Amino acid sequence: MTANPTKGKKSLPPIVYILATFLLIAGASLGDRKILNSLLGNSININHDLAKDAISKGETLFFPEDGTSSKLRAAEAFTSGNYATAQALFDQSLQQKPNDPEALIYSNNAKASLHNPLEIAVCVPGNADSNGSREILRGVAQAQQEINAIGGIKGRLLRVKIANDNNDNNSAQQIATSFVNQSSILGVVGHYASGVTLATADTYNRGKLVAISPISSAVQLSNKSAYVFRTVPSDYVSARALVDYMLQTLKLKKAVVYFNSQSDYSKSLKGEFSTAIALQGGQVVGEYDLANSSHSHNQSLEAAKQRGAEVIMLASNTGSLDRALQVVQANNNHLPVLGGDDVYSPKTLDVTREQGRDMVVAVPWHILATGSKDFAQRSRRLWGGDVNWRTATAYDATQALGAALRQNPTREGIQLVLHSPSFVASGASRTVSFLPSGDRNAPVQLVKVIQGGRSTYGYDFIPIP
User: Would you say domain 48-230 falls under CATH 3.40.50.1820?
Assistant: First the structure.
């Protein structure tokens, strides 16, 4: 679950658009353009340098609607180099809206800018998944807050640049190149979709800059680059956990798989599930592409049942979740349903309700799982609500970079530290360590949908012991 999910953008008042027209005609200053760009949510193209416009340590607001008027004035003060005023204004905004991770990061950045900071960056998908972006930023912000609260890293506070690649390969490549070219950036938390992280891996490798993805799970990332890591288990781990549950707990052997052919993550999870089930004597009796809108879910399910399907596997990604949930509704509890981590969403509980009861999903982390209590309590105090696995894995990625910075605050030094067999960092529920492939050395958590009152939908995801 996310902490107090933010509603969609509200319409801007006409005066903002009048101001925009005036400033464009008159030729606004750089500071004015950045503040205006924040007000409009990048709805007009003022700055043609994509990478520059998409990276900020406090000057540009990617989520201005999450804050207050104080947040807008804070960005203006930050742009002017008035860091003390900027910090006070960001803090003032946080008093009114404490679950705004962008404001917390920028407040810490303003303070850090006065103390010879160590700098990292985080890249989020922006409006391509605005809630996912906020979830990642909460994890990074919490780790930064905790690191800086104890005096930083050997007396140097941590500063975090935020970038928005809109979950787009080309934009991400430009941003990754910009990160590499900024010598002050010592590590990166990102990217989001597996395909986007794959698209940037060679850039980080050439630039000898570590990137730790808290989200990307495609198996193709394993050994892709000596500088690319992840704090989420790979699809290999998730698929095998789901297959084990299907064969050993449900004692069923035949599955139908729904996936999205346009998603590297979805194809990866489908492939790993199919391989794992075949190796253990099971069978995939049908595969259906959620990207094909001409498919009738009722017809595909009936055809799969005729071929002996006993279980439904949802290997959908965020973009195909709506169609995946239509499969659950069409199934109406007739066959058991399994799913990958993108199925773990409040939308799943809201849309499926009773029809999704007993669905089992593999996730990297759950707030009620063993070892999560302390982090869960700290995050609730900070954000005023529960956080989900994306926040936890982003927190872990930031903590891993912080631990490596303590040992060797250089780009190549961080890579060597993370690859060391003895490396460990404190995480949200367990220590963070990496395999030689760059993969997280950790299992997944299976959760089941049951009736409950933790969410507002009457159903909850609860860990399976």
Answer: no
Residues 226, 254 contacting (CB under 8 angstroms): no
Please provide the CATH number assigned to the domain covering 235-363+445-463. Answer: 3.40.50.2300
In one-letter notation, the amino acid at residue 73 is R
Give me the sign of the Cα torsion angle 124, 350, 381, 400: negative
Continuous segment of H or E residues that includes residue 161: strand 158-164
DSSP string, 403-420: HHHHH--SHHHHHHHHHS
Tokens describing residue 195: 């395909």
pTM of the model: 0.89
Rounded to whole angstroms, the Cα distance separating 304 from 3 reads 39
Domain ranges of the chain: 48-230, 235-363+445-463
Quote the radius of gyration of the chain (alpha carbons, Å).
22
Residue 201's alpha-carbon distances to 164, 312, 398, 419, in angstroms, are 17, 33, 18, 16
Quick check: do 48-230 and 235-363+445-463 share a fold?
yes
Q: How many helices (H) and strands (E) would you count in the chain?
A: 17, 13
State pLDDT tens for residues 391-431: 999 999 999 999 999 999 999 999 999 999 999 999 999 99
DSSP 230-289: ESS--HHHHHHHHHHIIIIIS---EEEEEE-TT-HHHHHHHHHHHHHHHHTT-EEEEEEE
> Average pLDDT of 149-153?
97
H or E element at residue 91: helix 83-96
DSSP type of residue 440: B
